[in-house]
């Protein structure tokens, strides 16, 4: 799913006819850095393909993240363009799928997929500037957890929920919401989160 052909003569599988001269590399355009727009398009294209080849996707995704992370640190105009393009695009590769930045936080202490995800450590450590720029939160808020409960309620339309959804709701209430508001007074909780039954 590459948008432009790329020659990687450093690959161990590349046999070729020997090293390529600088003049040939220049002629083929191999010495030019791609534009950020092309890298964003590449990232969007790879995100469309969830065909199971996650190592291939991971390699392309990592290369795109690396390029974009460096680009936003060098130029404020580029940063604005990257943020605008990616903010509403599912481009974060988590659990073999691509999700929006609003569904990902740097820290989440329990499993909440397919609604909320924790940023993988390798991305958190290497591309933090990129992800913070597009709105990845440090932790999810009570409102984020409440929206998941609301989504589960709406999806089940007053029918009995599945065991998986029940366990997710339990984790969201006991580990997510309760973990964030246990220090606050009961009046504060009732005033702001009256629709959520708290432990």
TrEMBL record:
This is Sacsin. Transmembrane segments: none annotated. It comes from the Eukaryota. One of its GO terms (molecular function) is Hsp70 protein binding. InterPro entries: Sacsin_chaperone_reg. PANTHER family: SACSIN.
């Amino acid at each position: 799913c590459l948008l432009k052909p790329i020659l990687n003569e450093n690959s161990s599988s590349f046999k070729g006819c020997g090293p390529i001269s600088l003049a040939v590399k220049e002629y083929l355009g191999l010495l030019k850095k791609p534009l950020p727009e092309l890298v964003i398009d590449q990232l969007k294209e790879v995100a469309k393909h969830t065909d199971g080849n996650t190592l291939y996707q991971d390699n392309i995704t990592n290369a795109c993240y690396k390029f974009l992370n460096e680009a936003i640190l060098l130029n404020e105009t580029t940063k604005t363009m990257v943020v605008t393009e990616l903010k509403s695009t599912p481009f974060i590769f988590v659990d073999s799928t691509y999700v929006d930045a609003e569904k990902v936080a740097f820290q989440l202490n329990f499993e909440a997929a397919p609604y909320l995800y924790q940023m993988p450590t390798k991305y958190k450590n290497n591309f933090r500037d990129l992800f913070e720029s597009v709105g990845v939160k440090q932790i999810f808020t009570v409102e984020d957890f409440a929206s998941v409960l609301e989504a589960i309620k709406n999806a089940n339309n007053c029918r009995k929920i599945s065991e998986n959804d029940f366990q997710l709701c339990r984790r969201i209430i006991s580990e997510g919401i309760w973990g964030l508001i246990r220090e606050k007074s009961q009046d504060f909780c009732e005033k702001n989160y009256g629709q959520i039954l708290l432990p």
